[in-house]
Amino acid sequence: MNEATFLTMTRAQGFTVLVSKDRASSLLAQMVLLNRILSEINDFNIKAASTTLTEEYKTKTVAALSEDLNTWLKNLPAHMHDTPSNLQSYASQGQGQLFVTLYLGYYHYGQMLFYRFLHEDVRSYTPRTHFYAQQCKEHAVRLCEIIYRSEEVPGCDVLYSMVGHVLVIASTVQIHTLLFGDEESVVRARARLEKNFVILTKLRALWPTLDICMERLQAFHRACRSSVDTSFCMDAWMVRFLVEFANPISDKNGVERPWALEEIGIC
């Protein structure tokens, strides 16, 4: 049921209260729908990295999953759209963090689906790959921005550990813009990286396990310094980087090494 309805129920009402049959207004129900799409995105990325798939299959699968995300967003009631006024409204109901979490999922799943096109767009430009690469960047930017807004609106700040992982992925997309974007977009990407680093450092103070996230960001940064041409390639290493967020990861060349925060060079 709608969270507002649930939170206003009392013992006296019990199960006699009239509950709307509308399921679309439940934030938790929408999260369940999104998680089903994420499962398919993860399965596709893993399958694409471990087996040889035809271009036709990959094209159809990405198009179908993209449409699933678009349909989910289109079917949301207007009061659940990602707008500053809706965030304020949910915050006033004590559900601001849940609202932010919902959109962190949506934007993260989008960047996961379209991430492969960052490499393809640079290597062999086509209207299709460029469109999907821009979709990845848009999802990553929106993910960063909703985290920033969550810190500005009382009662909306999201401080659970998974935020660290999705923000690391979004930060690597900003690194792509630093390497391949125009002058104006580079300035904005660098500002986001600096802000993301501050947030990650704050989260790491709350969740020591996020040391792994910082190590993974370091490994990615070293991969970019080693070979810009292959660092965004959706190979087995990249899939592990995107999916296995709780596990340490070796350097892309297979060399393990300790990390230091100052090596990132964005703070």
From TrEMBL:
One of its GO terms (molecular function) is metal ion binding. PANTHER family: TRANSCRIPTION FACTOR, PUTATIVE (AFU_ORTHOLOGUE AFUA_2G09360)-RELATED, ZN(II)2CYS6 TRANSCRIPTION FACTOR (EUROFUNG)-RELATED. The keyword Transcription applies. It comes from Penicillium desertorum. One of its GO terms (cellular component) is nucleus. It comes from the Eukaryota. InterPro entries: TF_fung (IPR050815). The keyword Protease does not apply. This is Transcription factor domain-containing protein.
